[in-house]
Design brief:
heterodimer, A: alpha+beta, Ubiquitin-like (UB roll), Alpha-Beta Plaits, 3 domains, five-stranded mixed beta sheet, four-stranded antiparallel beta sheet, 14 strands, B: alpha/beta, Rossmann fold, 20 helices
Chain lengths: 334, 455
């Protein structure tokens, strides 16, 4: 067992395995100090470093060489050194740079959240809310594309693509036939299939799950409902192709959508096959486990699972707590 | 006359052939290195020489070589970066065209020092004549026993290949070059790991510029100590400068580092002054990616001392009053040139050449170009100027590779030094379009005669 290294992020120290990136060290601490990541995906080899949203300041390189790093670094691709000190939300420089990145990302990504299928599940929406400006300073024409059907189940809308490359890595690494990639360069770059070939292998649907924005969408669910009106439930089935562990998204008694299960950073835990995703939409197909754990801050938890946090005045007053007991229990987490 | 090391025999007829090159002392360095020096001794000579990378970054070459990992049983590679494509820089092409054997000789010696058995010269795809010249020269060298198996009976084997590039500026960035060389899309890799640890095909690799590799030849011939005596301070040796713009005699010059900039521009040995008797307005000293300097700061440092052609002197004062030697692409602008137009032109280039991998560069370079286009074409707003400064700051330092910085610096520096001219474009768009830039007096009225008198 290799000796652990100590890293301090925004004043909180954690010991991690050598070779851990700053981002993953921050994830071990958790909370607000975890840098956002639009392109990094822990399950995809080689991902990260491109969107630049996870940039942080290394104010002390290591115990051996305490010099700070000259530039902000991508935390998802920079490994920790023993004694390293990192600033994320405590550095105004980082916040300023990150807001610049968000502004750049929103140049060619329309703020059409009300009509986007990803609304409520979009990382860029959260990032824009936290770091964006109220008004864009970009006054030129945006690039626009026609929607492309890549296969009968997946729709690509390049208008919303932020070129995170996650879907390309997914296609490269978990499917058996790569048929899509990046064309052109600079701000003309686009995700495309070769001569619009259909993406039709067993695991192609996972590109929908890894897309952090609404560029790749599930045609079997697309615009059937808003995500916050649905009720996610963990379920499994005996699948010969994949693990069969999924989240079913219910509206009433109907399964509107099937996705892979995601962790708190929005990354799927295990990739699932297209049969589970697109063809098994009956409750009878599945063994239901329990309601999916959803973050309190997510819009999906609205009206569903949010635990009511008692107001300070209730927390301090036992009489009020007793009076509110029934109401508080109603909102208790499963 | 200044001392010439690389271009000494440039005017000798037939110097591009092996026979003439050898008559002029060519391939002595190969014989000396392979027969009398160990690889480590060659590295030591290069270290002693103080040679700094001539591609732009100026990192000490010997030190870079000493970082090369040497795991057992793993191939090592030397890759020559001949993907020269920065606006204003054309010295490597000149060297390859006229004295190809200087590069090949340098490649053999450098490969020997690094223990590379296979080396590549990655040439920009558009440079087909140079590719043919190099291929012919490699064939000559191989026939004469300087390449292939058991070179000069030393037991050292080396195969040297010329690889045409994809015709993209980004492929001049060393990791994008390696990706391209491996047959992939030329996107820069995220560092670390650096190529010295994991480069071409995941093996330890050194990537050096054409001029750096060619400079190894005189270093081995005369010794690192001799080379270090040339130049000034940490800027040792000679440097090829590709001079262009409004100069009487643009071209490629070999200078001793430490030459006063004023002498370089105005003396008859070099550029011969500003064309048509005009005054100097501004310069870009090291290729389009470095900050532009107004004439007064080109010729003098902020403290009034003469500015020299050296890494340290050109960067004196940081970007507030200095710039960089870069790749040595020296562009001079006379008093009639429009800085806004020139900045837009540079910006257009970087927008076109951004690989699009990381967000600030992909989106920011296009944004800057569009704002500059608007300013130059008479539709600009006063707020555009601060917007440009802000966007350039948001790009600088936040990208995977230096292309973002290269796009941001010319814009930021042009506004820093020529803000009046940008404002004039907003206030008087019609006049600006007609060539009246409304500047008070950016140009420095130094005539050639005055310089001569001073000298």
């Amino acid at each position: 067992m290799s000796e652990k290294v100590k890293v301090t992020i925004d004043g909180i120290t954690v010991e991690v395995e050598p070779g851990t990136t700053i981002l993953n060290a921050a994830r071990q601490i958790g909370g607000d100090i975890v840098p956002p990541a639009m392109c990094y995906y822990s399950k995809l080899e080689g991902s990260g470093g491109k969107c630049r949203t996870c940039i942080v300041k290394v104010s002390k390189g290591s115990e051996k060489d305490p010099r700070p790093m000259p530039k902000l670094v991508a935390s998802c691709r920079t490994t920790v050194m023993d004694g390293m000190e990192v600033q994320n939300i405590t550095s105004p420089e980082v916040i300023e740079a990150r807001s610049g990145v968000v502004e750049m990302l929103l140049i060619n990504h329309p703020l059409d959240c009300p009509v986007c299928d990803q609304a409520g599940e979009c990382d860029l929406q959260n990032l824009g809310y936290e770091h964006g400006l109220q008004k864009t300073r970009y006054e030129f024409e945006r690039r626009t594309f026609e929607r492309i059907d890549i296969g009968d189940k997946i729709q690509l809308h390049m208008n919303r693509c932020i070129l995170c490359y996650r879907c390309v890595f997914t296609a490269d690494q978990i499917t058996n036939k790569r048929v899509h990639g990046i064309l052109n360069r600079g701000d003309h770059s686009e995700i495309s299939t070769y001569i619009q070939t259909a993406v039709d292998n067993d695991f192609s649907g996972n590109v929908i799950d890894v897309c952090p924005v609404g560029a790749l969408t599930d045609k079997t669910f697309r615009f059937k409902n808003r995500v916050w009106f649905t009720k996610p439930v963990d379920a499994h089935r005996d699948c010969p192709t994949c693990s069969g562990k999924v989240t079913l998204w219910y509206k009433g008694e109907n399964v509107l959508r099937v996705t892979a299960r995601k962790d708190i950073y929005g990354e799927v835990e295990e990739f699932i096959c297209n049969t589970c995703r697109f063809d098994k939409k009956m409750t009878a197909d599945w063994t239901i486990e329990h309601p999916t754990a959803i973050s309190d801050t997510s819009v999906i938890s609205a009206n569903h699972y949010e635990t009511m946090i008692p107001l300070p005045v209730i927390q301090e007053d036992l009489r009020l707590q007793e009076a509110n007991k029934v109401e508080l229990e109603k909102t208790a987490k499963f | 006359m200044a001392r010439k090391l690389l271009l000494e025999h440039i005017n000798v007829p037939g110097i591009n052939t092996l026979d003439v090159y050898r008559q002029k002392g060519g391939y002595r360095a190969v014989e000396k290195a392979l027969k009398t020096l160990t690889p480590d001794e060659v590295v030591e000579e290069v270290k002693k020489s103080g040679l700094r990378g001539r591609g732009g970054a100026g990192f000490p070459t010997g030190m870079k070589w000493s970082f090369l990992a040497k795991p057992e049983g793993v191939a090592r590679y030397l890759v020559c970066n001949a993907d020269e494509s920065e606006p204003g820089t054309f010295k490597d092409r000149y060297l390859m065209t006229h004295i190809p054997h200087a590069l090949i000789e340098g490649m053999i010696v450098s490969s020997y020092a690094l223990g590379a058995k296979t080396s590549y010269i990655y040439v920009r795809g558009e440079m087909m004549p140079q590719i043919r010249i190099l291929e012919r020269a490699i064939a000559e060298a191989k026939a004469a026993g300087f390449l292939g198996k058991n070179i000069l009976g030393s037991g050292y084997d080396l195969e040297l290949y010329v690889q045409p590039g994809g015709g993209a500026y980004i492929c001049g960035e060393e990791t994008a070059l390696l990706e391209s060389l491996e047959g992939k899309r030329g996107n820069p890799r995220i560092k670390p790991p650096f190529p010295a640890i994991a480069g071409l095909y995941g093996c330890p690799t050194v990537v050096n510029n054409v001029e750096s590799i060619a400079a190894v030849v005189p270093i081995i011939n005369d010794g690192g100590d001799e080379y270090m005596k040339i130049g000034i301070g940490r800027s040792t040796g000679t440097k090829l400068i590709s001079a262009s713009g409004n100069l009487v005699r643009p071209g490629v010059y070999e200078i001793e580092l430490g030459l006063p900039v004023e002498e370089f521009i105005y003396s008859d040995e070099y550029c011969g002054g500003i064309a048509n008797g005009k005054r100097l307005k501004a310069t870009v000293a090291g290729g389009s990616s470095v900050p532009v300097l107004p004439a007064n700061l080109t010729l003098k440092l902020a403290n009034g001392e003469p500015r020299l052609m050296s890494y340290e002197s050109l960067s004196e004062g940081g970007f507030a009053t200095g710039t960089m030697l870069g790749s040595g692409g020296f562009i001079a602008f006379d008093e009639d040139q429009c800085i806004v137009r020139n900045t837009w032109n540079f910006s257009r280039f970087y927008h076109h050449e951004s690989c699009g991998q990381c967000s600030p560069c992909r989106e920011g370079t296009g944004w800057m170009e569009k704002v500059l286009h608007r300013l130059e074409h008479g539709h600009g707003k006063m707020s555009d100027i601060d917007l440009l400064v802000d966007v350039s700051k948001k790009i600088e330092g936040n990208t995977i590779c230096p292309l973002g910085d290269a796009a941001a610096w010319p814009v930021a520096s042009a506004i820093r030094h020529f803000r009046d001219e940008f404002e004039w474009h907003v206030k008087e768009p019609v006049k600006s379009l007609q060539g009246n830039y409304g500047i008070a007096d950016y140009a420095v009225p130094i005539a050639k005669a005055e310089v001569k008198q001073e000298n």
